[in-house]
Structures are given as C-alpha cells and as structure tokens.
Amino acid sequence: MNEGKYSSPLNDIAGRFTPYLYLAPTFIVVSMFLLYPLFNTFIFSFTKWSGLNEMKFVGLQNYFRLAEDPKFWSALTTNLIYILLFSVVPTVLGLVVASIIGRAEIKGARYFRTIFLTPQVVASVAIGTIFGWIYAPSFGVLNRFLESIGLSFLTRTWLGSSSTAPYAVGLIGTWIWTGFCIIIFLSGIQKINEDVYDAAKIDGASAWQTFFYVTLPQLRHELVVVFILTLIRALSTNVFGVVSAITGGAYNTRPISLYAYQLSFVQYEVGYASSVVVILALVIFTFSSITFLLEERGG
Prior knowledge:
Blueprint: H1 9-44, E1 47-48, E2 56-57, H2 61-67, H3 70-101, H4 109-121, H5 124-134, H6 141-148, H7 165-190, H8 194-202, H9 207-218, H10 220-235, H11 237-246, H12 256-265, H13 270-298
Helix pairs in contact: 1-13, 3-7, 3-10, 4-7, 5-11, 7-10, 7-11, 10-11, 10-13, 12-13
C-alpha cells in the first residue's frame, strides 16, 4: 500500500486555504490602514461633523452641497489639467523617448536611469520649493533665461496669474514623472523578442509601423501600470505636496485633495470634506476601471 498517495479531506482543505494564510498579513494591514479609513470616510460623508463635536446625520445633504459648490468644481477642473500634465503627457513622452532609445546601445545607460528616477526620491514639497525659485518673476531662472535669449516679452509672473499658474504647476508634474515612464517603458521594450523586430524589418515595415504594430501592443501592460500610478499621483499625494509648497492653492491651482484637506483641518468641516474625498476616490476608481477594461479588450 502506497501511503504517499493518500490524501485526507483535512489535508485537501488545508491545501486550499494555505495561499490565503500567506495573504492574511497583507490583507490585515490593508484593511487597517486603507479599507477601514475608507469605509469610515464614506460614513462621515453623510454627516455634519467638525471632528470635535457631536456627529449629526444629514443624509445626502453634503453631496447636494457639492453639486452647487463653485470651489469644488474649480478644483475638479484644475485636477483635469493635472491629469493631463502629470499623467497623459509624461506617458506619451516616456513612450516616445523609450521607443527611440530602447533598442540602441547607449554608453552610461545606468547613469541615465539614475538621473531619470531622481525626481521620484525627492520629496514633492522640496520639488515645489525649488520650482518656486525657478518661476520667481524677479530672480527666477526661467525669466532670466528668456531675457538672456531676447525673449523678454515671454516673461511672466508664472505663479501669480490664474491663466498660467495651473499649467506651471502641471509642468512640474511632467518633469517628475517623465523619467519614471521612460524607465518602465524601457524595461518593457527590452523584454520584446528581437525576432519580432527582424520580421517587421524583413516585411518592409517603417519605423512608425514598427512602433504602432510591434512595440505599442507589447507594452500595453506597462501602459496600464504607468497611467494608473501617474493618475493617482495627479489626483492625490504628489500634486498635493507640490501645490502646498508652491502656491498653497491660490490662482486656480488647488486640486481636490488640497480642498478636502483645507475643509477638514482648516475649516473643521470633516463631514463635508469626507464627501469630497469619496468623489475623489470614485474618480480614481472610474479612470482605473476604464483603463483595465481597455487593456482586457486590447488583449
């Protein structure tokens, strides 16, 4: 009798649940620091609460108020600009640059990768402060440079006007994330089989055709990762730190995340601020879901 082949029902049950035991520590941490606060925020969004006094249930009143709040809609419009400049533009630039240099042998490539990733290890508040000096109207590097090449008519108070400040802040995000996108796309290009490129070359494919029909389809997973990561930063942490340091939200530069923070910790309207955060979470979830659906259909 071969006892090694015998498997009791208890062993089968244990085998099924073993993977979940490995996931349990992560699930507990995520539940404590993400799911539980998110659930509480959702509950708070139906209340009128300062964070100190007694909580009062008000139903959908906060959401009706949001629909008529011009500051919220202004912050949402500003966030759309940040999505473009923190996420879409870096993704496109990163894809183009990576496609150009991805298959070329460049000396010192490791050093270039280090330079590309440098903005990721610098605190967003520090980056905002540095660019505040660059954009300064009187002694800033940008205006001085424009003057030195005879383009004085282009000098501006970049952070002192509602027409230029959101875009000036957004370009900081472009600088921060383009290098990151290049690195991710380079790693994706390097895993593509060289035989595929050789076959395209034999068939007479041009550089553009090779890019659209060979490189781009092979990078769809990297595109999803890059877009979602940059999108989250454009709507929350990264843009929050930069704007807090550089303008404080003035001149139409205030994103939704900073507006929620000011409502909660400056104006002590925790209930209303929670409704803003819920909408922000829904925006992130919607964009992410659409991205995943497009990837699945493309696959």
